[in-house]
């Protein structure tokens, strides 16, 4: 069998379009690390990986990351045709490692892990050995992501690519998704495909090892957290509905709010027009419509020096160490996106003992347990969110709050740790290899 190692260890080849920083990339890196820790050999091929803009494991030697096929086709042409370029770059990557070099044949992979872009699966099926099955991880149907923000002419332009997405996914030996919610969406989007393929759910994981800041006295470093910090962490994008957190916080009476502060932190790139305009819209909402005092900080130094009477603080772009510090300092995490595919931030908060208030739809319904690790509320009923904020700030005793925090830690460690993800993937790969082996034996017998 291709790539057979001693004691059943596997050689697993990952194929990912652009190994930058994002939810999909975090999942790929975590999956690769979890499998590597189980003794398997893991190699990641990608069309692009900037050492200045990628996760630590992709640049510090933890993972074997190989950038191939990055010279012929650009990511876009004058900012357009990105989907065409992405497909061509993936095909170029496959041809490079299969024909322009001997890497694929020398690796002799047992399993391929492909995610995000399925267009190259038919070609991979031709190039890969019949005994090397293909696992495809569908984060979310790309056609829905494109249609959600496109005009009719762009949807028309996308039609052939949408058809290609469904057709090409059929070449995967196994398809997995990131939540039961996403499985339902995929089943409704492609009923014919899901009749042929049994969709598996493989939850993303988070690193459960103690962080360096775990005992660094975060509450002493952040002086304005003593009065109660309500935290929102998300990219500055309209679909994240950060305004919901601001409106719910503003609905607290002055007595309920006291000296508490809402801190809105998250991904912000000044080159991304939506980040800039949405931040401006949120500031206008808080100051103009709701009468709250706001400030915006771009560094931790400026954040620590904002006036005490600021009620809503916007913190643009949060480094990992500061993010961990904020989570440990918060009294409540407010997670506002609706129909989120999964949602890593609630897990990060629960791991640090912080209760979570999230929308009662999408991925958080599979991670947050109502009344045990947090609350799930209808995003259309702002008053229900305000009630939870009031409960956390004024009605819950410290013992009760800490017990909820401990329950969150237990839930993450028992269900969403790296080891669970590795075991889940390994079991699926074993099943795929067994089916491939039986199929090969049958074909030989014929």
Task: Please give a structural write-up.
The chain is an alpha/beta fold. It folds into 2 domains: 6-205 and 418-445, Rossmann fold; 212-415, Rossmann fold, CATH 3.40.50.2000. The protein has 19 helices and 14 strands. The chain has helices at 23-37, 56-59, 82-100, 103-107, 121-127, 142-147, 152-169, 180-189, 191-196, 218-221, 242-250, 254-257, 273-289, 300-304, 320-329, 345-351, 382-395, 398-415, 418-445, and strands spanning 11-16, 41-46, 64-67, 111-115, 134-138, 174-177, 200-201, 229-233, 261-266, 294-297, 312-316, 332-335, 356-359, 374-377. Strand 2 (41-46), helix 2 and strand 3 form a beta-alpha-beta unit. Helix 1 crosses helix 19 (418-445) and helix 16 (345-351) packs across helix 18.
